[in-house]
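Extended Data, panel c. Modelled sequence:
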Amino acid sequence: MVFSMTGFGRARAESESCTVNVEIKTVNHRFSEFNIRMPRQLLKIEDKIKKTLNQHIRRGRIEVYISLEGQGVVSRKLQVDWNLIEEYFQFIKQAQNKYGIEGSVKLIDLLGRTDLVHIEESEAENEQLDGLVLAAVEEAVTLLKKMRLAEGAELKKDLLDIIAQVEFLLAELQKFAPAVIQLYKDRLTKRMQEFANGQVDETRLVTEVAVFSEKADINEEITRLKSHIGQFVQTLNEDGAIGRKLDFLVQEMNRETNTIGSKANDATIAKNVVEIKSLLEKLKEQVQNIE
């Protein structure tokens, strides 16, 4: 089963006191890398969040954004500095007595001073909130996985189409390869006749053709290339993270194709090799998107 490494999922979970919003997006990455941005009060469940994500995502760069809303997110408490209020009140009375200042201290005068009275907010911690967050993460990553699967199905179609083109060119190579030996033999015979007044040294001719045949033989490389293609197609139907294995197989295909190209002593073979290498480059680019 093919999963793309790119995807997006969003979920929302609500209770009477708070709302949790979760967004998850993934992009290509060689390994599995997490970047989770969330309120500090949720740090204690970060490992649980990663565990939930790991059950669905095996490879890629995972960006997670979690935000909280509602009254249940923070707790508020009135903080009063009674000692400072007492000193403040006594100072006013002393100043009135000493300087004959008229007036009275009103409650509003005290409430307006933040150094005397203020509201302190602290992040609320409760099991219900943790459960909401984990539920939202589960829903978001499930939606993300569906998107990755849908895109993976399209990638698979494209990969199989490229593989089919490679197989066609490979079949053409295999059919034409024996003719290269015969063409070389014919050219060599003609040259011998031209330089030896129509006489041909059969022993030398056989030896030269045998040496050329060994150097130009590409059957072994074609066989290995076909084997890699078979493994590639089989891997596309496997479960789990298959991207790195596919990437390795593409590298092996390239290696065998390069060897065929180095042995090519014919323009037709060289042309087909160039086309195969171009297709393998497209294959490599697409494989980089697979989990």
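The chain has three domains: 7-72+125-147, 74-122, 152-287. This feature is highlighted in the accompanying rendering.
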